[in-house]
Structures are given as C-alpha cells and as structure tokens.
Amino acid sequence: MLAVRARALFDGVGPGLVERPTVLIENGRIAAVHPGGLPLVGTDILDLGAATLLPGFIDTHTHLAFDASDDVIGRLTAADDTTLLQRIRTAARATLSAGVTTVRDLGDRAYLTLGLRTETAQDPAAGPHVVASGPPLTTARGHCWFLGGRAEGVDGVRAAVRERAERGADLVKVMVTGGDLTPGSDPYSVQYSRDELRAVVEEAHHHGLRTTAHAHATAGIREAVATGFDTVEHCFFLTETGVDFDRQVIEGMVRRGTTASLTLGALPGGPPPPAHIARRIPSLVTGLATLREAGVTMALGSDSGIFPVKAHGSYPHGITAMTNFGFTPVEALRAATSTAALVCGLAGRKGRIAAGYDADLVAVGGDPLADVGAVLDVVAVVRGGARVG
Known about the structure:
Elements: E1 2-5, E2 8-9, E3 18-19, E4 22-26, E5 29-34, E6 44-47, E7 52-55, E8 57-62, H1 72-78, H2 81-97, E9 100-105, H3 112-122, E10 129-132, H4 154-167, E11 171-175, H5 194-206, E12 210-217, H6 218-226, E13 231-238, H7 247-256, E14 259-263, H8 275-278, H9 281-294, E15 298-301, H10 315-324, H11 329-336, H12 338-343, E16 361-364, E17 378-383, E18 386-387
Parallel strand pairs: 1-6, 2-7, 8-9, 9-10, 11-12, 12-13, 13-14, 14-15
Antiparallel strand pairs: 1-4, 2-3, 4-5, 7-16, 16-17, 17-18
C-alpha cells in the first residue's frame, strides 16, 4: 500500500481544501482518504510536503497526432504511420508531465491512438489514460478531411459509425461545421444534413458509443443539440460577425443534458489573437456566464496540437484561462477534473480523490483556490497508483 501525503487536497468537487490529507492507494485505486494526517506502519510513504493534491487533470479535447507546429497538416500528411505513432507517444508523455492523467483524443489518423490506449493501459508512465474517437467524420474536403474520416449520406455515416464500433473506438466525433484549421473549410457552415446527424447519433447510441460534435458556430451547435449529440466541442456560439449565445439552443442543451467541452487556454508569449477573435472576447465572457447560469455542464479541453501556442503539455494554462472568462478557481478545477470525467463517460472512476476512484493524482505548488496559477507548478504526478512524474 502507498500513502501519499501533502499540505492540502482538493477532491475534485470542493468547495474547499482538505488539510493535511493522507491518501491510501492499493492496486491502482484509492483505498481511503484521511484528513488531518494518519500514523502509518508498514506502508510506503510519498510525502509531497507543502504541495496541494488534486485529481489528475482530464483533457476533454486533444489531438495527439498533431505536432503543434507551424505546418500541422503538411507534417501529418507527410508522415507514415510509424513516424506518426512515435509523435503521438511523444505528445502523450508531454501531456502526462503536465499533470494530465486522462485525455479524450478527438481526431487521429488510421486509429493510431487506439494503439496508444493499449500501451498506456499497460504502462502508466507511457502517457495518460486514453479515450479515443479515431478519425472524425467529415465531408469531402471538409474540416480535417486529411485524417481519412470522410462519410456522407445517411447510409454512409451509419457505416462509418459501425466501423468505429468494430475498431474499438470509445466515441464518435463529427465535424458538424467546418473549421479554421482546414483551408477551404467554412467554420460557420453546417457540413451535414439533420437526417445525417440524427443517423450518426442513433447508430452510435445503438452501439453504446457517445457522440460529440465539432461546432464553434451557433448554426452548428443548434443542429448538434437538435439531433441529440451528447457533447458539443468548443461551443462558443460564433457567427460570421460576432457571437450569438442563442437562449433557445441553450435551453435545449439543459433540457437534453447536452454538455459543452470548452477549448480555452494557450501558452503565453505567442502572437495576439486575430482582430476578429479579440473583439469577440468580451461577448464570449458574457455568453459563457449565460451558459453557466442556465445550468449547462461545461468541462475543459485544450485542443492541443493544432497550433504552436496549443502545444502538448499546455493544458494547465486552460485552467487559468477559465478564471479570465469569469469562472472561479473551484469551477475551473471542477471543469478539469470531476466534470471532465463526466463528459468523458468516466464519472465514478476518475476526476475525484475518493475511495474507489482510480489513483490518478497531480500535486501542485501552492494553493490553487487562492491563486489558480499554482496549477502551472506541477511537482508530482501519480497515475494508476504509480508515481510517473
């Protein structure tokens, strides 16, 4: 049995810290959590001193196959599968070192992240626990077409979902709209008909798979909610001229239980956002407050890999960014832990420090409830009961 000690602990729910906790770990699971210290005999002890223990971070939106370069598409398309898998492994290790013990990968090529899923299950030090979609469904020359997920027509999208179920994917991702990363793709236009989107959801749920929709734009979010998607990625309610947090759509999200995976945060020191994005930020702050007040469940993803400022391992900057968008430190930490576990379909197993949960922990310097920037100072990572960082 391993006992982990620290100055304080945030359990993933809050609202405050547990002082001087001892977390007992056995066979990769948390056996017990004791506040106020505990005399221990015959137990291995990991004493983290003045650190604060948190549940391992959960990134609800990553792309381990993207290398965060200035030419993501070119480098990916030029790489053979062996080279690309090695980059995926490198990205996974960088992600784990930042305290991210679980990722939901939402776009690879040739289902390569499913191989990584097997590797990290066998060796926790190799990377986070992986939830993988495989190649996202998209249209001909649609957003991220180069990942090989083209599927069109009701019969075509149903067949694509069945393929993912047969290959062992954990969920189905659909590019409901276009995206900025792909030249010629329109992020404000819906790529699929309502019948096609309904068919995806019906087929996926028949096979026990969750569904998630790429949609920055209000038009795409509206279609995803109307057709029953479980989660909407990005979910920023953008229009060609601004932001429109459509209250009718938001009410639909609450009524249907549609969750949002927000992709916030970036490394500091990069170029400023383009003018058309910068001028939308005040409206985004207001709009995200509307989502929160309405009761929409929101978790945190990074979208890591798509740009240099979205490098693998940058996830903690998303936690700090949430507070810049009006969330409290506790809300941001929940979005990165317990709520993220819910969105990934892992509630009851990950995202909390409680008896019976996987022993995935991150220790940070300082008190992140008083200064959320403490999450940038990762001093230890435990995954599956083993210290890996």
